[in-house]
Design goal:
4-stranded antiparallel sheet, G2/mitotic-specific cyclin-B2, 15 helices, globular, Cyclin_N, two-stranded antiparallel sheet, single chain, cyclin, 6 strands, Cyclin-like_sf, 3 domains, Cyclin A, domain 1, mainly alpha, cell division
């Protein structure tokens, strides 16, 4: 997988969810900063322009070498083959061929999405005027109004929904040109973009959910199209979650014009059809926020739990084997133990129905990931949580062992 070094650093005056025009002006005034540009296409007309402007390309990792895998459709014939939900082939020309068997009940889907959107608005950041929002990215104030009467209903709905919105943990087996290392680099890059544009944590978690579900429903995605798939996931997540999502031109800009507007729009349309317009997915972030509302925690514990939850997005194995609610419970347990040497409170046992015995396998895997975070090549998540906004929790020393017996 190739990458170049064209980017812009974050302006200290940039605010979360500021209007696009102001955000764009601020970004254009920034200085140069290393930015990972993934998956440059050999047949992309933008590549020559990028090379002529001085982009430098080199290998990011030995994990990113192109693989040949027997039994897969030739990459010269197809970019994406959709194996379930609908029969769709994205040809090399960028045109999609949709079979007659692909049908969508738009009215029922719209009703379902409206219902889920209403519930998720209760579990996400309050809808306020941008000028009235605080610097805290994940304020839990909105929950104070609703928890007394509706928290249990919302939680049960989310638990039922998470089963329908899960990705396959083995999906990379159907993408011979894509490795786990490439996905890690892509998610790390998405974290950088979310931070640069001051988007919410929920936008990031939704984008990774869309990415994994899309790759679960498709086969033989080319290595050179992986960043396009990731960028489209973030584009859709930002439209769904943000008050002021970045404009389409900004998504072209963050890829150093590796992809065109038309390519992004085609991929966005393809995404929505593959996922059947089911975008209201419960995420680890939503469950975590709900848990921390039911059981109040200090600022350090809250930030550390969010940090551990973000780290879990880097690895398919083993974390896609667990439901988002279990990963959220494990992240909160590990953060609580790190800060206060306690685990899962009785109030959350009663609320969630999860016991420590059910959480322990995921908790052990999260602990291994937490301990190894400092030595990983990808550091965007650690850098994010080094800021005072998150109490600098990524500087904390993880517990060497957990008393899980």
């Amino acid at each position: 997988m190739n990458f170049s070094t064209h980017s812009h650093c974050v302006s200290p005056i940039c605010k979360e969810n500021v209007p696009c025009s102001a955000r764009r002006d601020a970004i254009q005034r920034r200085g140069a900063k290393d930015r990972t540009i993934l998956g440059v296409l050999s047949d992309n007309e933008q590549r020559g322009r990028s090379l002529s402007q001085g982009s430098q390309f080199s290998k990011r990792s030995s994990d990113t070498s192109q693989l040949n895998f027997p039994g897969c459709a030739s990459s010269s014939s197809y970019d994406v083959y959709v194996e379930e939900a609908c029969e769709v082939v994205l040809a090399a020309s960028g045109q999609e061929v949709v079979s007659d068997s692909y049908k969508l009940n738009a009215e029922a889907s719209a009703l379902h999405n409206d219902h889920m959107r209403l519930l998720l608005e209760l579990s996400s950041s309050p809808c306020q005027d941008a000028s009235m929002q605080s610097e805290a990215d994940d304020s839990l104030i909105a929950w104070d109004v609703f928890c007394a009467d509706y928290a249990e209903d919302i939680y049960q709905n989310m638990r039922e929904s998470e089963k329908r919105f899960r990705a396959r943990s083995s999906y990379l087996e159907r993408h011979p040109e894509i490795t786990n290392g490439m996905r890690v680099i892509l998610v790390d890059w998405l974290v950088e973009v979310v931070e640069e544009y001051k988007l919410s944590s929920e936008t990031l978690h939704l984008a990774v959910n869309y990415l994994d579900r899309f790759l679960s429903c498709t086969a033989c995605v080319k290595q050179g199209k992986l960043q396009l798939v990731g960028t489209a996931a973030l584009l859709i997540a930002a439209k769904y979650e943000e008050i002021f999502p970045p404009e389409l031109t900004e998504f072209v800009y963050i890829t150093d014009s590796t992809y065109t507007k038309s390519q992004l729009l085609r991929m966005e349309d393809f995404y929505l059809r593959v996922l059947a317009f089911k975008m209201a997915a419960p995420t680890i972030n939503q469950f975590l926020r709900l848990f921390m509302t039911i059981h109040s925690v200090c600022a350090n514990t809250e930030s550390l739990a969010m940090y551990i939850a973000d780290l879990s997005m880097l690895e398919i194995d083993p974390f896609l084997q667990y439901t988002p609610s279990i990963v959220a419970a494990g992240a909160l347990c590990l953060a609580t133990y790190t800060i206060n040497r306690s685990f899962w409170p009785d109030s959350l046992i009663y609320f969630t129905g999860y016991t420590m015995a059910e959480i322990m396998p995921c908790l052990a895997n999260l602990h291994k990931l937490y301990v190894s975070a400092e030595s990983r090549p990808q550091q965007a998540i650690r850098d994010k949580y080094k800021s005072s906004k998150y109490s600098r929790v990524s500087w904390l020393t993880p517990p060497a062992v957990l008393p899980l017996s």
